[in-house]
Please model this.
Amino acid sequence: MSDTHELGTHITLAHGNGGANMRALIDTLFARYLRNPLLDTRADAACIPDPQAELIVTCDGFTVQPLEFPGGDIGTLAIHGTINDLAVAGAIPGYLTLTAILEEGLETALLERVIKNMSLTARENNVAVITGDTKVVRRGEGSGIYLVTTGFGSRCPGQRLGIEQIQVGDSLLVSGPVGDHGIAVLLAREQFGLSGDVSSDAASVLALTQALSEYTGLRFMRDPTRGGLATVCHDISLATGLGVRLNEGAIPVAAAVRSVCDMLGYDPLFLACEGRVVAVIAAAQAEAALRHWQELPQGQQAAIIGTVTTDRHRVILETTLGGERLLPALEDDPLPRIC
Amino acid sequence: MSDTHELGTHITLAHGNGGANMRALIDTLFARYLRNPLLDTRADAACIPDPQAELIVTCDGFTVQPLEFPGGDIGTLAIHGTINDLAVAGAIPGYLTLTAILEEGLETALLERVIKNMSLTARENNVAVITGDTKVVRRGEGSGIYLVTTGFGSRCPGQRLGIEQIQVGDSLLVSGPVGDHGIAVLLAREQFGLSGDVSSDAASVLALTQALSEYTGLRFMRDPTRGGLATVCHDISLATGLGVRLNEGAIPVAAAVRSVCDMLGYDPLFLACEGRVVAVIAAAQAEAALRHWQELPQGQQAAIIGTVTTDRHRVILETTLGGERLLPALEDDPLPRIC
Model:
């Protein structure tokens, strides 16, 4: 049973005006599903109780199209994406804030599905939405739903991760196949008339990041979202002045992802993942860390995929054919609005 | 001298793709102006050092049209609005996160003005932007710039404010004239062919909220933004089950605001302010608090405007003509996209 009939079937500008209609939207959808002891929708602010000595903060905007796709929707993506940015920073996610920019004319039923899924995902992952804001923009000035989340977590004691910790000789690991999210969203757009059995990999990576928390040689982790694995390598190279050498044959790519990429001319190394981790770790600990990941359901296809080199500012791919090629920095956008 | 020529004159989808163009956008605009010791644009997360025992958090979306108006722009509005939500919660603002959703085709020069003004406003108000995110949406799926900020501040010790603290007999104060922001934005749209000498009141209210921090009878403060003063009164009435009685003659309204309202049929009590505070305080302390406010440059036109009554769920306006009328809850939107 839904109480959303009070709202009407579509969002109107009055749902964003601060008055009675906005109150109804907040009460019957946002507060109803996202209810928790810290969320007080009568207040414009919330209190984080007893913050740890070091609180890690991240923020993310989500503008994915379409709003729903195999393996997730814009709401679950927002929760997972925010959790993951905290997890790869070596933190345990705790709280989120949520701002929704809705477009006039949005179907209330679609919004309800998104909020409901978001609430399930938040609960599964032990995070609570503690304050929020809603704006409604005119028809044609949005595309249904944009979400912006800020996440807070407590840094795991003793863990000092940072891109500047990376050293020559370190190994690169990836926790699973790359590009699934990008291809799942692409196929959901149906603009290419293709269909396929690819689901987004969107998921929390917290179990993966926590699995490595005891490794003293762990330098840096990142979730390869926009720009994909190749862009994480370029970010490393740019920040450290070092190079990265990737072993193409070692990089896991699902067969279905590879065949769509071959057909359309995409490179899976540049496509977004939403549930994978790239970790840089001292070479001596790489094999142990890999086994640790492979024991987890999320890490069964994890692999050691490359090393950090002295090749100043170069990302080099050793191809399966035995050659090597320079991986360029991403310039044009292969797939806009992927997250 | 500007380095923004690297970016081109307009924002493209590639400025949001996670690659080299996005890096250029972040480095030459966001990081250049918003630089501070905690902002590391190579990371997706930031650390809040030594948080106080109670950290107050707020989030806000900004979709104002036009992006620039007399007295501010979407960037300064975002900073002021976030500071103000923290200030009225009894906190000292410290840090912000910033997410920008940009529309393909946005003029880079306009974006630069907005970011520059934002950086000046942040500095003036001792707040630092510590992490951010940028997304670019296709032409026609935004309206130039949407900003979303999350703000953090430390709660002033000993201050326990909350709408549930309000008691029958308490006085309502407002710190200055109402409706200036709403009318300034309205005139900037030029859709009515009117022009006028009204500037937005957008400003930090921290000095005003801090001025009342010693008053033990202070119950609740709010900045009357969307929905205006009348909506704050309705929120009070709804949350407490009590009534509010306003004295129309005591409510400060600038002459220019009143005349535009008269011409177009708006009620200034429902129009947004972005630099005013409504405070509810024990009647015995109201006069002293008022004098305290009036000593501040921001509070010269402050006034005691009403009282909390036992009139269950009713907001009543005692008119200047000696009658009284029920102020309805805001239903339709008098002015969409005001903040």
Chain B has eight helices and 14 strands. The first helix of chain B runs from residue 20 to 34.
